[in-house]
Every structure is written in C-alpha cells, then in structure tokens.
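Table S2 (text version). Query chain:
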Amino acid sequence: MTVVTQPDVSVIIGAYEAMPYLVECLASVEAQTIDPARMEVIAVDDGSTDGTGEYLEEFAARAPMSVTVIRQENSGGPSGPRNVGLAKATGRFVFFLDADDRLGPEALERMIAMADKNGTDVVLGKVEGVNRSAPKSMWGKTLDRADVYTSNIKFTLSAQKLFRRSLLEQHGMRFDESLFTGEDALFTLEAYLRANGVSVVADYTCYYLVGRDDGKQVTKTGSYTLRFDSARALMKLIADMVPAGDKRDLLMVRPFLITLLPQFGPKFLTDSEEVRRHKFELAKPLMDAYWTPGVARRLKVHERLRLHLVAMQRPDLLVDVVAFVKAKKQAAAVLEKRGTRLYLIYPHFRSRAARIPDEIYLADPREARPFLGYREAVANSFPRRALRKVRRTLRRVLPGKGFGAAAA
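Corresponding structure-token output:
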C-alpha cells in the first residue's frame, strides 16, 4: 500500500511565450535541494505558440517530482494562470515562479525551513536582477519576523514569494483578473496584512529576476491607464484593511510613490495635452480620497511637490517642476530658524502667483542633513512642529477640504 503524503510546496508556473527562458527556469526547479517528493509543479501554458506547452510536457515526462501541465487559451495576463494553478495546488505552501525567471538551488529548502521555524505565513527570499533591476532595500538582514509597517517589505509586492496555502484558502485569496498590471501587489499586500507573520531570507539569493530582451516582459507593457487601475485598487485595499492614521499613511506611500508618481515624471513632458488632462482626471479622485499630510511628510520634497500640484490640479506648474527634476539639478537650499528649517528651492518656491505653501518645500531631517549649516531640532520636535504647520496652512488654503482637495 502506497502512502501519499502532502507535498511541502506547490510551485506554480504561469507560462506564455516563455521560450527559451523556460529551459533555465525548469532546470532551476529540478536543481532544488529539497527531496523531489516534497514538491509538486503545476505549470499552466497560457495559449503559447512558441513551443512552451510542448517543452512543459517533455519536462513533466522526465522530472523526478510530480508535474501537472495545464494548457489553456490565452487569458491576457498572469492572474488567470496563477489562479488555475492555485486551484490545483495541494502543498502546504505555494510559490509563484515566473517562467522567464529562476530559483537559487537552496531557495525552497531555506524558505520552507524559515516558515516552519517561525510559524510565519509569508516568506520573502532575496531577489537578484539579471539584466534588469531588482528591489534592494529589504535585503539588509535576515528576519525571523518582519513588520510591514516598520520594514521595507512593502516595497516588494511581486508574487514571487512563499505563501502558506491555508492562509490563502482561509480568506479566499486569488489574483484579480480584471487588473493587467499590479495584480501581484494587491495579492501580496493582502497576504502581508492577513499573515501570522512575515519572514525574510536575506543571506541567500533565492530568486533571479531575469530581464527579457524580446520586449515581452509583462511589466514593460501596458498603457498609463492600467497603472491608475493598479494604484486605485491598491489604495482601496489599504483603506479597507487599515484604519485611517499613521499605519495607513505608511502603506499609502507605496502606491503614491511607486505607481502614481511615475505618471507625473519625465514622460509627462512629452505627453500630449489630452493625455496630461486625462492623467489629472484619473488622479483627482485618488488624491481627494487618500492624499494626506501623513503621506506627504514621508516623501522627498520633489515627490511631495509634484503630488501636491496633482492634488491642486495644476498641470501648468507641474511641467516646470518635472523639467527641473529631469535635469537632475541639485535644488538650492534656504536655512531659517537658526538652521533648523531647510527649504529646497524647487520651481515656484514662494511665488505669489503659484501660492504653494512653504511647508511643501520643507525638507525632513534625512533630506536636510547633507546641507552645511543644517542642525536638527532637539528631541525630534522640529518634524512635529512642521507637520502641525503644514496642517494649519492647508486648512487656510483649502477651508473645509481634505489635504488633497483640488483648487478651483
């Protein structure tokens, strides 16, 4: 009598037009140091025409671990294949592996051990870029338990992590198939917030993020409207799951900085007037609902200034600021209050016509410290006073409105 045991991990691979990258991807799965009996592979060919499906079937026929290949018509995005794979998974954990990326040999063994040791529901394994950039700020130290509010894990919301499957099933978590970019951010942040702890493996490269040279990388495609869809969904998730206050503001920094702000970066200078107008229309409800002093004070001056102008619906002023930032000029500084206040002189500073509050240009201690003559106020009282001043100023400028209310 054969006893069938539950695998430790289900590796879910969604694949579309993945050749020849798929060859190294599957080789990295086969090279895993855990016993093949401890894992299963569920690969979903999403309507490929380049031999991806055939190669998956060849791999399934010779691989030492259980491999299930599902072939379906193209779904148009990564969410569908991941959801199909998740529905078939039987492992204690699931890991979502993109077909053009690859795993470090000890990746699954180390991440599973970390989850079992700490009872955590999500494990982040160090990511390294190959011919592309990869997130870096969260790999400073291996952490048995990381907090989403005090660590930088909120800045890596891709799906390539180890998730405890019971967590996903308990909350009915699936990828949002209506989103064509940012769907993984929504899924991963919800998992962080619902998890019984998150661990970080930072002392071993678990995942190699491979840049494709054929232009088919999903993250490189898609119109700007899809980015606004992604920002809107992530902001709503945060607002639904986290009460208003410092914790919500901390998390809101991520969609404002990573998803929304790039729409008002250098590309904005070459956008047509119609596209500029449309971007401001799409941004307005998000700024009105979610842009707060708590988010603003956590940004650098040029980031805060650009988003303030978006909130104020002032594309005319924004163009000057974006051009200044694109030129990579160092903003001059003005020191006041015995050196404890430092303003960065970006365009329209103290312009009577622009009427932008001084506090928008006020650098926080981290941004101010490199400037000669700056001295930090005692006991961190300066940031608190500055924040109170921002709030008072904006109440005068926008009576009866929220921080992000648009001016007429």
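Notes on Table S2: The first strand starts at residue 9 and ends at 15. The radius of gyration is 24 Å.
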